[in-house]
Amino acid sequence: MRPDPFALPSATGARFALLMLSTVVGSVLVYLWPAGMAGGRFRGPLAVDRVGCVNDARRSVPAVDETVLTERFGDCVNDAYLSAVGRVALMVALLLAVAVAAYLAAPWLVRRGPVVPLAALGGAPAADRIREVLAEAGQPVRVDVATLRPTTGARAYGRLGRYRLLLDAGLLARGARDPRALRGVLFHELAHVRNRDIDITYLTLALWWAFLLAAALPALLYAAVEPKMITEVWWRVGLFLLVLWLARTAVLRAREYYADARATAATGDPESLEAALADRPRRWWRLVSNHPDGPDRVAALRGEPVLFRVGAGEALGAGLLLGYAYPLLSFLLGNVMPGTTFVRDWVVGLVLGACAAAALAGSAWRAVQHALAEQADRAPATWRAALALTAGVLAGQVAVPAMPEVGSWAMVAGAEPMFGAVTALALLVLCQVYLRWVVLSAYTRLRGTPRPGRSAAFGVTASAAVFGLWASTWFMALAMLSSSYPTWPTLGIAVGTAVLNPVLAACVAWGCLYPLAGLLRTTRGTWRAWLSGVALIVAGFPAVMLPLHPYLTGLLRDGQWWTAFLLLGAGSAAATAACGLVLGLWRGGRRRVGEAAVLAGAAALTAAPLLLIEQLAHLTVLGCPAGVLPQCLSRVPTPQLNGFGGAILALASVTTALAALGAAAGALAVHRRKRTDEPFRRRPALVAVALLPALLSVAALVWTGTGTFVASTDSFTRLDDAQVAELDRYAAAIRPGSITRPTACAYSANLSYGVGLTELNTVWLSRLSTGAVTAASSDDAVLRALGGEAMRALHAMDLPRNHRANRAIGNYCVIVAAAERVYETRRREPPAS
């Protein structure tokens, strides 16, 4: 049974969104140079505005307070960058305006040459045959004939719902000899009208020509003013031209396959279309051509699943766009929204990741549709697409220019290849897990559903958003590793950020509950297996901890709370991993690894609050009698109390991951050739009621972890006595005028940056204090004032204020150093004769 290619959303729309985003990102790369935000020369309005900020700060030093000076200088630089971003946005708007103008002019360009309406041909045999086909199709479309074109082509054109067909004179002559071929061509062009892809076609072509005229050509002309642009930008522009061309051809080729499928469905006569394609041989340049070759289209008509594959080429293009565009847009958004690192990364990751993943998710849903229609034993393979997506992201990260305050994989890999390999492997695992999850979600939703289009549209949108947030977490980890030299403690902080991130935790919960809802609705035994997993975890934790009671009692008696908490967490992890293994052996199989992992993960999420209650019960019984429990807990060190909600969230995240891994391992050990249960349909209301315990559990976990996450990222914090004494020692070490400005800038740039998750980082105070002391000891009056403000913010434990001061220090050092380089270059240039 052949699947209906129009039952699910087509690939054309998602690919067009990728093309449009690629055009915008490529133009941003070019426009950063004339806007003054990139390049080796310190020129342009941005340079003038930034130097003006430095001069204003130097004039204001004797007259204003350090806090006021920091705020004024920071606001001045932010306004300068905001103006530059506005200029870039204006140039991008100009490019889009050129694209719109090209789209509006397209019908006129298509009709060049002598063109007459079909009625002017009177009763010619070919004209009568065309009228018969139009009457058979029931589509009242105006047909024009290009009388001086001897070729056998035809095209649908127009704009905004006013569409026409233009036939070459050679096609009418061929139609007189071969009416069947003429019929196939006409139904194919009418299918373009019915598919409503004509506007997308000419917008695609318009975006291509707009990029050439409004981005590539100005870049070539600007290179005469800025020669460094030739070596630093033009090869990147060339790479983007290749990406744009491939995205352009992907849109145009997909629409041809869909038009063939529509024409075949309308006529029930694929032979007529095959006859029309008989004179189109295979070409060696077919992979970069706008139209597929005739043999490829004939193969698709005969059942080749061209429209039902998870393509590696599409994944590579999406990865290139994601890896390349993320630093650029993050840099621009950081200038529009300074000091909002997490919000900026989430927004950029959500937009880019969603657009890149939408095409892949749609392809995965269509591949599952084909597998279900063919009753295939194996699920669609995704490892090639995962490899291509990973390679694309890494290649984009290598090609992107270095952006201030934005890290990249190339920076990490260049500093420490081991960390580059670790982060690349993590990305590969992330991509493969994501694609397998999309395939599983599609299976659970498409099995027996009467409305697959609506389910697919929602599933693709939701999965694209999930991937966007997951991808932003990976990029945030790279930013942390790039902010200083990559080390294992920094990588641990990045992992801790991910584990304690409530938004990411909500995405993981959605990843478990969304396919679980589909399984509950279509697969018998899911409810029983899920609740059995919860019961196994709840019962397994006391069994695991029973042999450890004497050791745990000793830890609590000696006040070793952190070790006791780790022991309880390890017991929870062991119980959930064992439960996952049991579920995998029970419900799994080589064809059901994903189902087993989802069941185990959902069971762990549901059982997490119950595990917390059991852990508190262990503390009460073994170390704290009920009457003195508050006094016992008061002996817990302050950071652990402040991070209690985060610890709960971390426990849930780790146990969910371990349960899913255990279930996958158990499922792989079982050899089941086919399913043992038959699909059925359960009412949605019953599914919602069944999911209520899991939803309440997830809501409680996210709520308890959100407060800790917000409080631990660039917020106020409290110091113990030892930290206060350490801060006083640093303040006493300030020696104004003892360090030159270049030296102070070098130290402050490496040591002063926004620190997150201060509860976990044991060196953050030392790093920030050293940067502030170095700046405050500078021989530069402005830098000295900014360093003093950073130290005062540390004394007040106001980390947002300290971050603003550090950002001002970094901006001041960059602006002054760039201005000095320009001065030295001009001084060494020979005078003009």
Question: What is the topology?
Answer:
Layout: H1 11-31, H2 44-60, H3 66-110, E1 115-117, H4 125-137, E2 142-146, E3 154-159, E4 162-168, H5 169-177, H6 179-195, H7 198-222, H8 228-232, H9 234-267, H10 270-276, H11 294-301, H12 312-336, H13 341-374, H14 383-399, H15 409-415, H16 417-446, H17 452-483, H18 488-499, H19 502-522, H20 526-545, H21 549-557, H22 561-587, H23 593-622, H24 629-634, H25 638-642, H26 644-668, H27 684-711, H28 721-732, H29 741-751, H30 764-776, H31 781-795, H32 799-828
Parallel strand pairs: 2-4
Antiparallel strand pairs: 1-2, 3-4
Helix pairs in contact: 1-3, 1-7, 1-9, 1-12, 1-13, 2-3, 2-32, 3-7, 3-31, 3-32, 4-5, 4-6, 5-6, 6-9, 6-10, 7-9, 9-12, 12-13, 12-14, 13-16, 13-17, 14-16, 15-16, 16-17, 16-19, 17-18, 17-19, 19-23, 19-27, 20-22, 20-23, 22-23, 22-26, 23-26, 23-27, 26-27, 28-30, 29-30, 29-32, 30-31, ...
List keywords for this structure.
833 residues, mainly alpha, flat
Stretches with pLDDT under 50, minimum 5 residues: 637-642, 751-762
User: What's the total helix number?
Assistant: 32
Tell me the fraction of residues in β-strands, as a range.
under 5%
Approximately how much helix is present in the residues? over 70%
Number of strands: 4
Word description of this protein:
By secondary structure, the chain is mainly α. 73% of the residues lie in helices and 3% in strands. It contains 32 helices and 4 strands. It has helices at residues 11-31, 44-60, 66-110, 125-137, 169-177, 179-195, 198-222, 228-232, 234-267, 270-276, 294-301, 312-336, 341-374, 383-399, 409-415, 417-446, 452-483, 488-499, 502-522, 526-545, 549-557, 561-587, 593-622, 629-634, 638-642, 644-668, 684-711, 721-732, 741-751, 764-776, 781-795, 799-828, and strands spanning 115-117, 142-146, 154-159, 162-168. A 4-stranded mixed sheet has the order 1-2-4-3, with helices on both faces. A hairpin with a 2-residue loop joins strand 3 and strand 4 (162-168). Helix 1 (11-31) packs parallel to helix 7, helix 7 (198-222) packs antiparallel against helix 9 and helix 22 packs parallel to helix 26 (644-668). The termini are far apart.
